[in-house]
Design a protein that fits this description.
Layout lengths: L5 H13 L5 H6 L7 E2 L5 E5 L7 H4 L7 H12 L2 E2 L12 E7 L17 H17 L4 E4 L2 H8 L14 E3 L2 E3 L5 H5 L5 H19 L10
Parallel strand pairs: 2-4, 2-5, 3-4, 5-7
Antiparallel strand pairs: 1-4, 6-7
Bound molecules: iron/sulfur cluster.
Iron/sulfur cluster (SF4) binds next to helix 2 and helix 5.
Length: about 220
């Protein structure tokens, strides 16, 4: 029997996400399901919460367009990390990222605003996240926010803020929990410091993998 290539498997997974109808409420509220995006031979695997109403739900790409998305993109570009595998210009010195969410469809409340996904929705979509984690190569997983961290680490994180930007080794891989960009966009954490945290993430990955940094002067 012919073995399916990894790229084909990832494409098949994306198609399954795009046509998934498991969550009745989310199928009604979403504009589209948003599969993960980025490099499948990544250094960093980011996991957010859900596509934002004004962001990924309209663009189809995680962490784009809304205030969280713009901040996340600024943090990536300021720290030498790229999530754009189809970019016209590829900078070989940049670290590569894959970006996805716990649930792939935008959850809305009765007023039409973003809400947290329900336990059932998280459980329904967890199969896709686990599959992505198997198919995508990464050096470190970076859950964005408390809920993503709890699901990635499979443990309660009551003192989540103290875990921000601190590497832990768990379930056979490195994990560095980060605050969710929406928390920063709301002004609850300084933007400049958040961008510095992404630069320190870049340095950690390079040190960990002994990758030379030719992209910018050392900080
Ligand atoms: S959130 Fe996940 S499981 Fe639910 S409908 Fe969307 S893709 Fe399917």
């Amino acid at each position: 029997m012919r073995r399916t290539s990894k790229t084909t498997e990832i494409q098949l997974l994306k198609n399954r996400v795009k046509h998934c109808t498991k969550c009745e409420n989310l199928v009604k509220s979403r504009s589209r399901a948003v599969p993960g995006y980025g490099f499948t031979d990544a250094n960093i695997f980011f996991v957010g919460l859900a596509p934002g109403r004004l962001g990924a739900d309209s663009t189809g790409i995680p962490f784009t367009k809304d205030s969280s998305g713009r901040l996340f993109q600024l943090a990536l570009s300021s720290s030498g990390i790229s999530m754009e595998p189809n970019g016209l210009v590829q900078n070989e010195n940049e670290l590569r990222a894959y970006v996805t969410n716990l649930v792939k469809c935008n959850p809305k409340n009765d007023k039409g605003n973003n809400r947290y996904p329900s336990k059932l929705e998280l459980d329904n979509c967890n199969e896709f996240l686990k599959h992505e984690m198997c198919l995508v190569h990464f050096d470190v997983i970076v859950p964005l926010g408390r809920l993503s961290t709890e699901i990635v680490l499979n443990q309660k994180c009551n003192k989540f803020i103290s875990m921000h930007n601190r590497p832990v080794h768990a379930n056979g891989s490195w994990c560095i929990p980060f605050i969710h960009p929406s928390f920063v966009a709301r002004g609850s954490y300084p933007k400049n410091r958040y961008i510095e945290d992404f630069k320190s993430l870049n340095r950690w990955v390079r040190r960990h993998n002994d990758i030379k940094d030719d992209s910018s002067p050392r900080l």
